[in-house]
């Protein structure tokens, strides 16, 4: 199981980072706030993602997620449905996932799922298609509040909503195919079939730009769900404190906490009204 988890962590974790920015212009808008000046204004996602069928990537993610659950269950590491921490996670997700479609219309059809895996490794992820997992080490080591958990969950959900895995899969395919072959494939209408979304999925890395994008979208999403966005600051303070000893895996290649705290502080004026509005309705 450790090998399965470590492979997944490399791809779907709060700490994944490290490749160049994926961008080739505008493309179809994914994010779609109700009001033009409502919340954080996020740029359009990479046009490259359109080269990879979203359905194929989501099917692959669902398969890998099922394998992870099976492995965890065989090791008695998959939390039962009545586990207090899992109930807590699902309650937080239940406030966030209904809002996801305003960032990506596909999310309205996703079969959202969240599970808790008993592991000392501190991590969380959301695969394409809304498959979420938290590892108990993250909750136990940092003693996260509900608002802080929402910051983590929002960040991971944002990676799926912004289709970072889809864009990175496309970039990997472009690199391997070469310009001449791409031109032929485009002309024949077979471009999407040239990209492998199987085993390569777990080996992809998010860029620092993707991480920043997920920070902002996740912050916006959590605030709309009624979670205090100021918890993003305390979350990163806890992460920084944890990294002073032996840093958890999700911090090994991650952008620095102080920079992320500054970015959160910069955007608080945009998200605090969202939080206050949502909180007043609860």
UniProtKB/TrEMBL annotation:
<dbReference type="InterPro" id="IPR051156">
    <property type="entry name" value="Mito/Outer_Membr_Metalloprot"/>
</dbReference>
<keyword id="KW-0482">Metalloprotease</keyword>
<dbReference type="GO" id="GO:0051603">
    <property type="term" value="P:proteolysis involved in protein catabolic process"/>
</dbReference>
<protein>
    <submittedName>
        <fullName>Zn-dependent protease with chaperone function</fullName>
    </submittedName>
</protein>
<dbReference type="InterPro" id="IPR001915">
    <property type="entry name" value="Peptidase_M48"/>
</dbReference>
<keyword id="KW-0732">Signal</keyword>
<keyword id="KW-0645">Protease</keyword>
<dbReference type="Pfam" id="PF01435">
    <property type="entry name" value="Peptidase_M48"/>
</dbReference>
<feature type="domain" description="Peptidase M48">
    <location>
        <begin position="92"/>
        <end position="266"/>
    </location>
</feature>
<keyword id="KW-0862">Zinc</keyword>
<keyword id="KW-0378">Hydrolase</keyword>
<dbReference type="GO" id="GO:0046872">
    <property type="term" value="F:metal ion binding"/>
</dbReference>
<keyword id="KW-0479">Metal-binding</keyword>
<dbReference type="GO" id="GO:0004222">
    <property type="term" value="F:metalloendopeptidase activity"/>
</dbReference>
<dbReference type="GO" id="GO:0016020">
    <property type="term" value="C:membrane"/>
</dbReference>
<feature type="signal peptide">
    <location>
        <begin position="1"/>
        <end position="17"/>
    </location>
</feature>
<comment type="similarity">
    <text>Belongs to the peptidase M48 family.</text>
</comment>
